[in-house]
Amino acid sequence: MLQAALLAALLPLAASTPAAASPQTPPVAASGATDPVGADLVAEVDALVRKAFYAPARLAEVGWDEGVARTRSTVARAPDAAARTAALRALLALLRTSHTGYYPREDPAYWDLASIFEPVLARTCPKERTPALPVTGEAVGVFWRELAGRWFVGGLYAGGPAEQAGLLTGDEVLGADGRPFGPVAAFAGKAGSPVELEVRRTRDAPPLTVKVTPAAVRPAEALRQAVLSSYRVVPRGSRKLAYLRIWAWTSQEIQQAVQEGISRANAAGVDGYVLDLRDGWGGASPQYLSIFMREVPVLERIGRDGAAQRLDSQLRKPAVVLVNGGTRSGKEALAHAIRKHGLARLVGERTAGAVVFGAPFCLSDGALLLLAVEDARVDGERLEGRGVEPDVVVPWDLRHAAGKDPQLERALTLLAP
User: Fold this and answer.
1) Fewer CB within 10 Å: N-end or C-end of the chain?
2) Which helix (DSSP H) or strand (DSSP E) does residue 199 occupy?
3) Residues of the chain falling short of pLDDT 50
4) pTM to 2 decimals?
């Protein structure tokens, strides 16, 4: 089924919104000791890659056998779980392919993946290798970005705990409750209890303190709600512009949230739309592009009292679509078509070039292996490793941005000069 296949292709390599139960980290070896857990993991990963990786000829090209031998030696003597993770990720990086990575439970991306793929994991994985289903945990409504080993607020879910607490896009989080910060461990088991974050907002400013209260969530549902809550009308001079951030496009339920936002915008009489496809998750079906079809008639429901209700979820005014290096997979396929057919202007930075089909595999340490299992073409073109160039390039380093967003500002200016 097309939707199921596209769901498998949605997966990014960047960190995403945390929604984590208490992290379960396996025991590690003391420095200089042999780590049987790590050695077994290398063997598991090697076997799965040989069995399922979509381009088996590449294994010889990249020196996979030699890489496995090096990694086995490195991992067996890894001093901690972080070193083991780094070694396994370096091994998989040899494949030079998106949708391929090792995700332990202390990585915030793990929990979104587990929630999104819940039906798959329930069907294919032993219970001892998965978290309790349905996947639930604690989150603050942040899309986390790890840059050079430091954690930044890459984006905020509208109305979420982090936004309510005053966190801003670009904030660097240094610590939580007096300990080094990790976006899973900092909030695990603390739903309803304030967590004191040490935050650096601008590059040379002293840290400040922000108290945020995590909420218990189901990650896949939190993503749908984040899309729904992102809708707002932005006044620009005499014009009204609608904004909608599509954090994920992984289900028909999220597509319905997108359509609801467009319907609200049309009812408000907006003069243009900004669709934000930056970061988050992919998964978009090509059929979702139908929101650009102005030929779809506007239907009105008229009651006995003569009151009319317009049913209209089509983009009928000019639109700008925001993209960046975190726009990947199904979202990239849509961005490609939007530019090819002139449906809207793309603003931002080149997309990830991450368009193959991936699948999750449960490992014995409780981690997920994400593996590219099929290649993909979009209108006969291969976007993997290439991406989609925007019509208007606006570079942006979000670190210490203090909430400023030059890409969004440019999009609004294009719609309301």
Assistant:
1) N
2) strand 195-200
3) 1-34
4) 0.91
